[in-house]
Structures are given as structure tokens and as C-alpha cells.
Amino acid sequence: MWNYSFTIPSLLILAIIFCFYYFRPRLPIRINRTFLFLLTIDVFVVLFDWLSSHTDEFPESYHSWILWVLNLLFFAFFLLRIYGFFLFYMDILDLKVSDHLLLHRTAPILLALCELILISSPMTHAVFFIDTFGYHRGPLYNILYVCFGGYLLMAFILVALHRSGLSRYEFVSLLSSIMILVIGNIIRAIFPNMLIMDTFCMLSILVLFLTFQNPDRYLTDRGQAYNTKALRSLLNEWHPNHRYWFLGFAMKNYPELRAIFGGNQVDECIVQINQFLADSFPGALPFYLKNGCFTLVAAPSVSLNGVKETIQKRFLLPWKTSSGDLKPTLAFIQGDSSLKGFSADRLVNTLLVSMDSASRSASNEVHTLQDSMEKLERQMIVRRCLEKAIENDEVEVYLQPLVDCQTETVVAAEALARIREQNGDIIPPEEFISLAERDGQIVRLGEQVFRKVCAFLHEHQASFSCFRWINVNLSPLQCLQANLSDQFVRILHEFAISPSLIHFEITEQAMIDSDTLNNQMRALQKAGFQFALDDYGSGYSNLIRVSRYPFTNIKIDMSLVWSYAEHPSPLLPSMIQTFQEMHFSVTVEGIETREMADTFRELGCDFFQGYYYSPPIPMHDFIMKYGLSSEHGNSGATPVL
Ligand code: C2E
Ligand code: MG
Ligand code: MG
Questions:
Q1: pLDDT value of residue 514
Q2: 557 C-alpha vs ligand 1 centroid, how far in Å?
Q3: What angle do the packed helices 197-208 and 168-190 form, to 10 degrees?
Q4: 432, 439 contact by CB (below 8 A)
Q5: Residue 259 burial (CB < 10 Å; 0-12/13-18/19+)?
């Protein structure tokens, strides 16, 4: 009477999916619970389908109550299964309860009605009944198809409505899954004796499993941890209603470790760290994001500080790999569900950016995501002001005098860029220069500063008697431009300025890409420009390296200057002496007091720059203060103070 041939393989395949899904790590989120529910229900449906069909086939061998119970259970699970499919489709579409409140409230009504009619069958014989001849369909048997069709239709409409939120692959998979169920249902209606419906349900589950639920999609390939996609899914559901904290930590020396030990060794270390996190904190969910960045997420009942201390303690010891002991240093960043007003996606993005910058920061303090968010918010404002200033030619140039050490007269100046906030406040360069460098805007900014300096010199050159040049800062990124020298020479010609009036300041950091920089400098030198090495002592340059480039002036970084002013040591005097023996002139930055000026004059420096003489001031003020028409009369040659 019944053809069982499809049931056994379906049950076996289902069992494999079930075991695989059940025993792999799963995130505690709704969609995973729904899928497990669907799998479990489907196992029961297939089981009771097989049992009830078998007893229906041989009714004389069983008590009628056994037939009643098995058929009731089969139909009850059968109805529940289609509701399970529907719930899963809803979860995939990420329908928020508040968005589709009515649908969420009303969706179970159809199921409840059908189940009620089914349960009444022993009294009403509505869906089926058992008599002395065995199993028979009742007059309301078709409510099974109504229930099935109703939920599939709703799912189809929802998928079609939310198509834009799905990738093409996901959309096609969802439609295929629904169509497979429809086809299975039609075949069941036409050939009721073939138990093939379960096979179609299993196939539909397989499609959903492969597209959305394969646990490996959410696991990192480096040990026992979830990946970034999993963190997004988790916080998408948890944030901000669920109470939780997270602790991110980044390996600060990750690039160096990879360079020294190689990728495989570092990956081996990451696997060990993930294992350590999984073993040590069973109450927390471990995530490995990327580039040596880890995150733990846990409920407030788990102590964040306890977890942090355990991690710090463990990282005092090395991680042993096949080719040596690795000792990563860590930067921590923490936060919790109290961060309102941010989407989960933004939270994860900020966490990634913050971990990246924390891993590059020299400080070892624990950062909070709240601070990082505020920092990013500020960066966005600065970025907008920067774009506007560059676009509208509104970058301002301030000048800070460079003073001859012996005569204490202004002989040159450094041009320093300024931009303004909407309310007119100045944004300091430390906020916008690094951003401009990161966004590539520094090239346009640098050109604007250079052009304004040329315009200033063109107009006011004659206002100074002993004024000899203006220093313009040149960013490493500008140096990568092949036509930089041509471009600057064109601007010089435009304003009829001699190149000897411009000195470019290049920082130590720019000297990393040595060949390109050297070629660029030689081209600019040929055009008549001169160079100063900026911030000497803040990086790693040495004298041999410096001598390879056509610098004429060395500017000693403030940190060295201040440190000498506080604790004099023979290092700085001998450094200055060596520079002079190598025919470099020496500028000392950060002179803030009379005593500092006296001290460094005695050491034989050539030029001073510092607040003691003047902070950077607008070009207009500079002319008023130091120009020929100023109250000093000829301040280019008169002392500054
Ligand atoms: P920098 O080139 O080393 O410029 C000197 C910085 O030291 C200036 O900061 C100046 O205001 C500050 N300074 C000078 N004397 C003293 C002092 O006595 N005490 C203290 N505490 N500070 C002093 P500013 O203007 O904030 O510029 C910071 C950095 O931004 C500059 O350092 C330079 O690297 C960069 N920058 C500024 N304008 C430009 C530009 O147009 N292009 C490029 N590429 N970088 C720029
Ligand atoms: Mg400078
Ligand atoms: Mg400097």
C-alpha cells in the first residue's frame, strides 16, 4: 500500500545533517535555534511518517489507539514542520518583530487552527479516523494542504518583498527551497501512497543548510573561534537589547612577527590562542577577526576584568610554535551593550578600525569603544572640513619665524597649514594632516600651501630686508608624484619667484622609500630648491643615511631639544657638532624660554624656531609684525623680541 523506498535514505541524510549541525559550534542566535528546531521536527515527521504508515498498512496487528496516536503525532509534526520552514524564512529575511508585529502575531493562528482541527479528529473524524478497517482520510483532510500552501505563499511574498536585501544567490536559494516544497506537495497530492514528501522537505533543508546554515561559514579557519561574519550576526541580534560586554585585543607586533617568523608560525600561534580562549572562558564566545585581532563576547555575569587579567597573565609567557617562541604584545579595547544609537554593523566596523589603530598606538592603556566612536565621529567632521577647505581654496597658511641664533632676527619662516571648523575654530594639523595623508588629499593640500606661499612671496618679498626663505613641508605622498618638480616649477613661474626662496622640509619617515625620494629630491634640487630634514631624532634615521640625501639643514626635533634642556647630556652637543662638520646648518625646534635659547646658542646652532619667539601666525599678521612697514620699521633685520 505504501512505498517506503524514499524514507530510509531521507532519514539517513537528515541524520547526517543533524549530527553535523548539532556537534559543530553554533552561535546562540535565533536563526540557529530555528534551524535546529526545523531539523528536529523533520526527523520526527519522517520517523512518525514511517511508523504510522507501517501501522496503517497492518491495522490488524496493532491496537487502534496505537494507530490513533501515531497518526496524530505524524500530522501534528507535519503541520509544525511547515511552520518551522516559515519561521526560518522569516529569520533569514531578518524581519524584526517591531517591523512585522502583526505578521508575527498572526502567523501562528493558521497553525493553531489546523492543529486544533487535527486534535479534534478522534471525536469529529475531521482530518482522519480509524475504524475496524484501519486508517481513513476525513472530510477536512485538505487542511494539511491549506496550511502548507498558506505558509509557503506568505514566505514567497516576503521573499519577493525583501528581494533587495538578499544577494542573487540567496534569493535563488530561497525561491528554490520554496519551489521544492511546492513540488513535493503537489506530488504528494497526486501520489498519496508514495512517501516522497519527506525527501522533498529534506532537499529543501539541504538547500537552506548549504546556503545559510553551514556552521563553517561562521568559523575561522584558524582554530576554535568564530569569524567576523559571525560577530556581525551575533551583534545584529544582541545589540542593544541583550546585555553583554566585549573585549577585543590585537597583537601589536603582528606584522613584525609575520615578517620574522613567517605566516605559518604566526597562524600556528593564533590557533593556540583561540584554543586557549575557548578552554579558559567557556562562558564567553571567542572570535578571531583578522590580522591578529581577537574578540570575546559574554554576558555581564562573566567578569570582564577577570578575563582580561587571565589573558594578560598568559601573554607574559611565550607561545611555543614549531620554529620558535612567539611573544605577541597586546592592545585591548572594550565596550558593552550600553553603546546606544549605533547599528551592530557600525559597532563591528568601529571595533575593527579601533583595534587596528590600538595595535599601532604606542600606549598600552585599555581603550574603550565609546572613545573610539567619538574619535571616529570627530575624524568624520575633520574630514568634511578638510574636503571643503581644499575644494574651496580655503586652506590657510600660518607662518612661524625662524630666527638667526646670533642676531635673533627673523631670517626665514615655516609655512604651516590650518583649516577651520564650521564655527570658525582652528583645527590643528595633528588632526588633519594624518587624515589628509591617509586619504591622499595631502597632495592637493600641499600644492595649495605651496601656491599660497609663492603668492605671499610674490606680493611681499620687498617688505622684508633680511628675509631669505620660507620652509614648506613636503609629505612623503607628494614625493611619490612623478611630475612634482615640473608642477612646482610651473607655479614658481606663475608668480615669478626664485626657487632659492623655498626650502622643503621632509620628515625622517619619508626616507623609508629611499630611491624614489632621492630621485625626487635630486629633480627638485636641480630646479633650484633646497631641503631641510624635519623632526630629526623622532625616528630611526642615522647620519650615514641622512648624508645620502641633498639636505642642507637639519631641524632637531622638539623632543630631543626639551629632553636636553631638562637633563643635559653630551649626546646632543656632539650630534650638532657632527652635523656642522658635515656642512649642514642646524635648526632647533621648540625653543620656549630665554634659557633654552641661550643654551642652544652656546652649542653653536644656526637657527631657532619656537614659541619663545612667536607661534605660527596668519600671513597678514606676519607682515604686520615683521614687514618693513611694521612698527619696527625694518624688522627683518631687527631683533624679534
Ligand atoms: P613641523 O613641521 O615639525 O612643524 C612644527 C610644529 O611645531 C608646528 O606645529 C609648530 O606650531 C610647533 N611648534 C613650533 N615651536 C613650538 C614650541 O616652541 N613649542 C611647541 N609646543 N610647539 C612648537 P603645527 O603647526 O601644529 O604643525 C604640526 C605638524 O603638521 C608639522 O610639524 C608638520 O609636520 C605638519 N604640517 C603642518 N602644515 C603642513 C603642511 O602644509 N604640509 C605637510 N605635509 N605637513 C604639515
Ligand atoms: Mg616642518
Ligand atoms: Mg618639525
A1: 76
A2: 11
A3: 170
A4: no
A5: exposed
For the chain, domains (ranges, CATH) are 7-216 (1.20.1070.10), 219-365 (3.30.70.270), 379-632 (3.20.20.450)
Q: Report the chain's C-alpha Rg in angstroms.
A: 37
Integer Cα distance of 182 and 197 in angstroms: 10
pLDDT at 175 over 70: yes
CA of 85 to the centre of ligand 2 (A): 66
What is the residue with the minimal CA distance to atom 27 of ligand 1? 429
What is the spatial distance between Cα 364 and Cα 377, in angstroms, rounded to a whole number?
23
Closest CA to 174 of 213, 227, 228: 213
pLDDT band with cut points at 50, 70 and 90 for residue 446: very high
Q: For residue 246, how far is the Cα from the chain centroid?
A: 15
Question: Distance from the CA of 509 to the center of ligand 3, in angstroms?
Answer: 12
- Nearest atom in ligand 1 to the alpha carbon of residue 616 is 11
Written as nine digits, the cell of 418 is 590650518
CB 555 within 8 A of CB 585: no
Burial class (CB in 10 A: 0-12, 13-18, 19+), 112: exposed
Mean pLDDT of 477-497: 94
d(CA 268, CA 134): 64
- Is-above-0.90 flag for pTM? no
Mean pLDDT of all residues in 466-470:
89
pLDDT at 244: 95
Using omega within 30 degrees of 0 as the cis cutoff, is the peptide bond preceding 28 cis? no
Percent of the chain clearing pLDDT 90 (strictly above): 72
Q: Which helix (H) or strand (E) holds 630?
A: none
What average pLDDT does this structure show over 265-279? 96
| pLDDT tens digits along 408-439 | 999 999 999 999 999 999 999 999 999 999 99
